Structure formats: structure tokens, C-alpha cells
Amino acid sequence: MLKLDIIEHSESPWSSPVVLVKKKNGTWRFCVDYRRLNKITKKDVYPLPRIDDALDSLSGASLYSTMDLKSGYWQIEVDERDREKTAFITPDGLFQFKVMPFGLCNAPATFERMMDSLLKRMKWKHCLCYLDDVIVYAATFEEHLRRLRMVLQCIRSAGLTLNHNKCFFGQSRLKILGHLVDKDGIHPDPGKVEAIQEFPTPKSISQQDVKFEWKDDHQLAFARLKSLLTKDPVLGFFIPGDKTLIHTDASGYGVGAVLVQIQCGLEKPIAYASRSLTPSEKNYSPTEKECLVVIWAINKFRPYVFGRPFTVITDHHSLCWLTNLKDPSGRLARWALRLQQYDVDVVFKSGRRHQDADSLSRNPLPKIEEETSEDIPFLNTITNFKEEQSKDSKVADIREEMVRRRDSTKFKEFNGILYRKNYDPLGKQWLLFIPKHLREGILKSLHDSPTAGHLGFAKTYDRIRRKFFWPGLYRSVRCYVSHCRECQRRKSPPQRPPGLLRPILPAEIPFAKIGIDLLGRFVA
């Protein structure tokens, strides 16, 4: 490095130790441990390109060229006044860098700023730059050649040199930032899934004193599992003019969303997102959780949907009123107001046809203790529930429909008693269908009884929906709780009622009344 004029002898009061890092090709990279220097360095927060933005910019391209600057950091000189800070100690003495070394906390930001300044007229249109990697892309060979010539001219005019061993031109597939990109979309990098593909067949289990068996059906299931884990769906490129959808779903412990577009008549996934719920969010009612995931997903995919019409697909029917909420208050009001800046339409879709976002929100859930039907005194007084159901005309209609459509899976009979399938993992798998004349008794038992505690609407509704079903359950619970005399008598409203509006009379003389908006506090 001394012969290459990269370093020089130093008399600096600064000193950092040397670290050698092995490269992929087996050679060694000379680095200096600048951690103590970085702690006292004023940070440069110039942004690096976002990975999703870089991938989206490649939409519509079919040819790619990649170029790598040769020792890119060493092509930037360090100011003479600051060279002493880069000093490092070796057995041969103290040296300092004349060019920008690896390891400085501000080196990536400095390099990215230089490349952005060099290629600012072409970045995101003809090429993109991620540190010392430059990518040129185009849809046709002629256009690609023209763009490539422009980029190379800029690099030459700046006096930069390329590493010919890391330059590849006119490729139909590009490996970038852990992904493989081609004209069809974004694929997972085979190198990232190689560990799963080569995972060995299990030979034992972790538990002691348990017999281990591995049969043909186990091997088939194991092979299929590895195949599913390594063959993710190909992500498409976002096309601004195509119809955009966001599928959302919430479970008891997480939320998930999928951004898709209708391309060539088919739904093409663009991006996936999911996260766990915070402890406070886990206490939300089911409706609030579904509202939460809608707001979170729209904010997550804001760069794609802001300023464009799009549709949110949810399996929670009551969310369809979210954008037209009347007399909003509290948390729902804040969420409804946040949606006003978007051109969004909320559409209901059955949970069985909503598996993409649903699977993202589902995690292995621990067993949750819940009260059984035997804990409800009202049900213990009913000796023949089958006979009670037969008194309801709605039950008769459902049974006739089950005879006509034997493939229906929504309703099922056990020992002559009708149940409805539940798609919420927090409740029972099959919900008992409550006939019309018994519904008030259920409401009284789960709201008015001493053990029920006169809970609010959300908790009462959630308590009932996990075990029972009847048409209009949501409306029935809301009406019952809102008309409960005991709740009205004992529970005070959470806020004072708004006062009456009063007109502001005109002033008799100028400046008799002055309106002032306060702004501040300002720090000098």
C-alpha cells in the first residue's frame, strides 16, 4: 500500500489496530479497527438506497449489466487535515491513509454521496447504484447499449476505475441484494435456501426414552416441507397503472398483509409483510385488531398506494364501514381520519378464500383457558337442545340447504345438534347454533350474571362469538349492551358531554375581539 501511494508514514497522536478479513476468493482484506474513533465521530446520515426501492426500479427491464469499482473506497482521497485520524499501528511503524479506508462509520455515506452526485441524472431512470456496485438496466438491447455508454462515460470522466473481474454485461438475470431478478419478477437467491435444501434427514429426536421411527411417509412429508420452504412464489414488479389490492388479516397474536396487483388477469404478489402484536394490542377486540392491520398495512405499503386508487380485502365484514364511519370517537376515529388521505375501498372476502394474508398472521398459539358451556347456568337448564333448535325456522332452512348441498362445510350436525364452523383459532372449532328464543338467555348469562360482570360490548361480543353463533350476533350484542339499565346507571361516560354551540356575536368596534393561534415553544 505504501508503494501504491495509499498510505504514508505518520507522526499522528492517533492509533488504531489492524484487522485482516478473509475474502470469498481466499485473499485477505486489510482493515483497521476504527471502533474507538467511530464512537467520537460526528455521524453522516446520508441515506443508502432502500432494497425494496432498488428492486422496484428494475420493473420492465430484461437486460442487466453490473459493474464494480476497483477498491472503490480507495478512489476517494482523505483531506490532509484529517489523515492523522486514520493512523494505524504495525510492527513496521505508524502509518496513515491518504485515501478513504474501510471501517470508518461515515465511509458508506461518503461513497454513496459521491456516486449519487456522479450519476444523479441517470439514477433510478437508467441505472441504480448501491455503494460500489453500479447496475444498468433496459428493456431492449439498443436502449441498454445506449444507457451503458452514458454510464461508462460518467465513470471515465470522474477518473474512476472498474474491476473487470466483477463486471458482467448484457445478462438476462441479475443477482442483487440477496435476490435474483429477471423479466418475470423477483426470485429468492438459491444460495440463501441451499442450507434448507441440504438439511439432513433426522436420525433422532430430542426427547429421551422415546422410540424413533422414520418411515416412507415421513420422508415424503420431509421432502415436501423442504420443497415448500425453498420454492416461494415469484414476486412481481409493481406497475403503477394496474389494479392494486391489499389482503389483510389479524389473529390473536399477529397481523399480516399481502400487496398484490392484477397483472394479465391474475393476482401477482408484490410484497409480503407481517408482525407480532404488542401486549396492549392483544387486548383489542377482534374488530379493532382487523382495523389495526388495515391501517398498518396501508402505512407499510404507502409508497405503492399513496395517490392511487386501491382496494383492501378483509375477511371481517364489519370493516366495510371503516371509510364511512359516522360519529367516530376514540381509536376508531383516529384510524378513520388517517384513511381520508387515501383513495381506498374496503371489500369483504370470506376467510376460506383469504389464505395468503391469513397464513401470515397465524402463529402457533398457546392453549388459552376459556369457560365451557357447562359454566353457563342458563344452558344447564336446557335438557333437550335438539328439540329447542327444531323450534327455530332458521334452523330448518339451514338443514334443508345442507341436504341440497352436501358439499357444504359451513354447518354440521353432531348428535342431531346444529353447529357452525368457526374460522377464528381463538374460539372453538364448531360454534353451537343458538335458536332465536334462547338468545336473550345467553346474553343475560354472559353479560348480566354476577360472574359476567357487565362487561362492555367488545368483551361481551368476543366472549359469545368464541362459543356460540346466530345470524346478526354482532348487532344483537351491541343492542343488548347499549340498552342495559344497570350499565347505564353505574357506568359514567368516559368524557364530558359536548356543550351547546353558541354563535360568536360581531364586535361593535374594531379590535374588540381578537382570535389568536399559539405556536411554539421555540428554542433560540
Describe this structure in words.
- Residues 2-181 form the Reverse transcriptase domain.
- GO terms for molecular function: endonuclease activity; peptidase activity; RNA-directed DNA polymerase activity.
- It comes from Araneus ventricosus (Orbweaver spider).
- InterPro entries: DNA/RNA_pol_sf, Integrase_H2C2, Retrovirus_Pol_polyprotein, Rev_trsase/Diguanyl_cyclase, RT_dom, RT_RNaseH.
- Its EC number is 2.7.7.49.
- It is built from 17 helices and 21 strands.
- Mean pLDDT is 79; it is low at 361-375.
- The chain has helices at 35-39, 51-56, 107-118, 141-157, 190-197, 216-230, 286-300, 302-305, 330-338, 355-361, 377-380, 385-390, 393-404, 439-448, 457-465, 473-482, 485-490; strands at 7-9, 18-22, 28-32, 63-68, 88-90, 93-97, 127-130, 133-138, 168-171, 174-176, 179-182, 185-188, 244-250, 254-263, 266-276, 309-314, 343-348, 411-414, 417-421, 430-433, 468-469.
- The chain has a five-stranded mixed beta sheet, sandwiched between helices.
- It is 30% helix and 20% strand.
- The protein is extended.
- It is of the alpha+beta class and 524 residues long.
- It folds into three domains: 2-177, Reverse transcriptase/Diguanylate cyclase domain (Alpha-Beta Plaits, 2-Layer Sandwich); 244-362, Ribonuclease H-like superfamily/Ribonuclease H (Nucleotidyltransferase, domain 5); 377-490, Endonuclease III, domain 1 (Orthogonal Bundle).
